[in-house]
Amino acid sequence: MIRRDPEDVKLRTPERDRMRLRHGPAAHAWRAWLRRLPKVDLHRHLEGSLRLSTLLEIARRHKLPLGLDPTPATLEPLLRVTASEPADFQRFLARFQILRRFYTSEEAIQRMAYEAVADAAADGVRYLELRFNPAALAQAQGFRLEEVTEWVLEGVRRAEGDFDIMVRLIMTIVRGEDPEVAWRIARLAVAHRRDGVVGLDLAGDEARYGPESLLPVFRWAREQGLFLTVHAGEVGPPANIRQAILVLGAHRIGHGIQAVHDVQVLRLLHERGIPLEVCPTSNLHTGAVAGFHRHPLPDLYRLGLKVTLNTDDPSISDTTLTDEYLFAMAGMGLQWPDLLRILENGIEAAFLSPEERRLLARRLHHELRALGGAPGEGPEASLP
Ligand SMILES: [Zn+2]
């Protein structure tokens, strides 16, 4: 346990606590260990995964009108959550608007997709479902949805060839989107199924926008064989989770952590075996949860729900999947066997065919055995 004196407690924020867990005395050994664990990330946004160094280069080369001289020091607080700012969902979402200015060319978008996959692979992610919003990538420069989709696919394809990782893509529609644009995205997703696009995602502000206007789009996509995942119960009420499942037909729920406040919704998730894509650091940064010690992940897990661990926006939140595993243990009290179960949940919840899922499971199990990752063999004695 970390001992805190009263002065220290006054200065605490969830983000400072997170940094303490991440850089504490035992964290180094654990992070090295957890990085080697072959992992699955089902909830990661391309737009939230961009390297600051690449964004700096783009800002300088294209002389982006950002109202500041782009340096690492000026860009970081613009694009990444800082320890001193209040956790706030709107503030978090606003960063995606700023990022739109950086989608300047085919080369930039291909590179962003390539690097997002490369960074996941370097973190030990063996299976990644990367989601992107073609409308966001296309809008600022007036690109066509079709071309930005091709560029993302090309960047991902190249990275998959260069690194030890399997990638599938999910196309994101934001709540409140023009239904005509949403239809075009859904049609594109279906058209690119052979290129690794497996699903459709509904994201954005669940407090302001219901899904009603997009309902026919999601129904059609499901009929066409796409998997659906819906951001719900992140900062909004548990009723949004029920709606995502019963009305939109979601196969998985993005976040869904507010389910913990509603027994009926918990029962629904349990009965239908709907997986939750939990992203702990993101929940701190959006203000959905006041700290890891208050995070409902352990409760949801112990209730037998299919919880998975994911990153959401590794660049905006300055995190990795390795870190999220570390926080689940050191910040929320889960144990090594629990992490292995959560990893299994990730494999079972993957938007793959049963045969592909079996192959993925076989491959990861083989790797886990080779790692010798039996409970008790990690550096548990030094857990913070
Ligand atoms: Zn998300």
From TrEMBL:
<dbReference type="InterPro" id="IPR032466">
    <property type="entry name" value="Metal_Hydrolase"/>
</dbReference>
<keyword id="KW-0862">Zinc</keyword>
<dbReference type="GO" id="GO:0046103">
    <property type="term" value="P:inosine biosynthetic process"/>
</dbReference>
<dbReference type="InterPro" id="IPR001365">
    <property type="entry name" value="A_deaminase_dom"/>
</dbReference>
<dbReference type="GO" id="GO:0046872">
    <property type="term" value="F:metal ion binding"/>
</dbReference>
<dbReference type="Pfam" id="PF00962">
    <property type="entry name" value="A_deaminase"/>
</dbReference>
<dbReference type="GO" id="GO:0043103">
    <property type="term" value="P:hypoxanthine salvage"/>
</dbReference>
<dbReference type="InterPro" id="IPR006330">
    <property type="entry name" value="Ado/ade_deaminase"/>
</dbReference>
<dbReference type="GO" id="GO:0005829">
    <property type="term" value="C:cytosol"/>
</dbReference>
<protein>
    <recommendedName>
        <fullName>adenosine deaminase</fullName>
        <ecNumber>3.5.4.4</ecNumber>
    </recommendedName>
</protein>
<keyword id="KW-0479">Metal-binding</keyword>
<dbReference type="GO" id="GO:0004000">
    <property type="term" value="F:adenosine deaminase activity"/>
</dbReference>
<dbReference type="GO" id="GO:0006154">
    <property type="term" value="P:adenosine catabolic process"/>
</dbReference>
<comment type="similarity">
    <text>Belongs to the metallo-dependent hydrolases superfamily. Adenosine and AMP deaminases family.</text>
</comment>
<keyword id="KW-0378">Hydrolase</keyword>
<feature type="domain" description="Adenosine deaminase">
    <location>
        <begin position="38"/>
        <end position="364"/>
    </location>
</feature>
